[in-house]
Write a structure and sequence with these properties.
12 helices; Dihydrodipicolinate Reductase, domain 2; seven-stranded mixed β-sheet; Rossmann fold; 24% strand; binds NADP nicotinamide-adenine-dinucleotide phosphate; alpha/beta
């Protein structure tokens, strides 16, 4: 089978390099172009990534000597995955969509646009219907789809089986987020080593609003937001990879503890689609009292799963638990790839 050519925008950043690593040996896609800012354009990928490539594996052979380009339409690929800095993503992604490219984005810029799907395939793949409206109303040949904020993705994956089985009225979530979530070079070392910073710009707003769209119902190419209240507190902690979230939930119908665990374990909604990057078990429950931990559980299902633990009753809400997820894999690069695979499975790339 001829592979679909992918252009990676923002290929030099934390998310961009994770896309390149995950894309090595992909059965459907191959990286055909890499693009970044003017300061990187014209150099080889390897040259620019000296001291920036963060994986223990080498840069994939197929990408190592590729010349970085300006992130402008005209690059030779069937689809682009965007890992652009949010200060430039709005305009660049729109330019690509206008010129007929399909854009699967990690950036925050278009997530809440009324005609842009904010996708987690296991939760809301029917929101893809917005693409038709986007093309029609904007007069574009291409289109933009987005994945949610890295903490939102793991929160929503953990909540989805519970929403389906018991209904959720309220959620309180406190995050402990890794430094790689701030990109490269990110938070200055003098600010974060031996420290916890109880503020991440705009993060709480994202966590409180994005899930309402994600759990919303699509009707007539419009999303009707879910009726749920979320209160979030976000903290940056001195960990390199992985966001931990402490979650309390008030249900519409309070279930038993075993019912909750069963709903996590049985959650496997898109098996039939056969997406290569989809985890077999999107939500994994750990019974041990001191799990999940960043050191032990971050790479479950290759970093594509959300790992839940410490489920117990809550004296204010109904239940509380923790969820841990990889911010760069399922929280960003892997999510954009999975969304691209969903497009292929649904016939958008033909
Ligand atoms: N890190 C995470 O955990 C995470 C999770 C979810 C979503 N996201 C989102 O994903 C995106 C990338 O995040 P990141 O952590 O990878 O950030 P990053 O490490 O700071 O990388 C930013 C990328 O944007 C490129 N860029 C900057 N200015 C540009 C310009 N004027 N024209 C073209 N390219 C430009 C950079 O290229 P140069 O190297 O040439 O400057 C670099 O490749 C952001 O929108 C972020 O909010 C990140």
């Amino acid at each position: 089978m001829k592979k679909i050519g992918i252009g990676v925008l923002g290929a030099t950043g934390m998310v961009g390099q994770t896309i390149i690593k995950l894309m090595e040996n992909h059965p459907w896609f191959e990286v055909r172009e890499v693009a970044a800012s003017e300061k990187s354009a014209g150099k080889t990928y390897e040259e620019v990534m000296v001291n920036r490539w963060s994986a223990s594996e080498e840069i994939p052979e197929t990408v190592r000597n590729m010349k970085l380009k300006d992130a402008r339409p005209g690059i030779d690929c069937d689809m682009v995955l965007s890992a652009l800095d949010s200060s430039v993503a709005s305009v660049i992604e729109k330019n690509f969509a206008k010129e007929g490219y399909m854009v699967s984005s990690n950036a925050k810029n278009h997530r809440m646009d009324d005609d842009v799907p904010l996708l987690i395939p296991e939760i809301n793949h029917e929101h893809l219907a917005l693409v038709e409206r986007q093309r029609k109303e904007r007069g574009w040949k291409g289109f933009i789809i987005t994945d949610p904020n890295c903490s939102t993705i793991h929160l929503c994956l953990a909540l989805k089986p519970l929403v389906d089985s018991f209904g959720i009225e309220k959620v309180a979530v406190t995050t402990m987020q890794a430094v790689s979530g701030a990109g490269y070079p990110g938070v200055p070392s003098m600010d974060i080593i031996d420290n916890v910073v109880p503020f991440i710009k705009e993060e709480e707003e994202k966590l409180e609003t994005e899930p309402l769209k994600i759990f919303g119902i699509e009707k007539g190419m419009k999303i009707h937001n879910a009726d749920m209240k979320i209160s979030a507190q976000c903290n940056r902690v001195s960990v390199k990879y992985g966001h931990m979230e402490a979650v309390s939930v008030k249900f519409s119908r309070k279930p038993g503890r075993d019912e909750i665990i069963k709903s996590f374990e049985e959650f496997s909604p898109i098996k039939k689609l056969g997406l290569p990057s989809a985890p077999k078990r999107p939500v994994i429950y750990k019974e041990e009292e001191n799990r999940p931990q960043n050191k032990l559980d971050l790479n479950a299902e290759g970093g594509m799963a959300s790992v839940v633990g410490r489920l117990r009753e809550c004296s204010i809400m109904d239940y509380k638990f923790v969820v841990l997820g990889h911010n760069l894999v399922r929280g960003a690069a892997g999510a954009a790839i999975l969304n691209a695979e969903l497009l292929k499975a649904k016939g958008y790339l033909e």
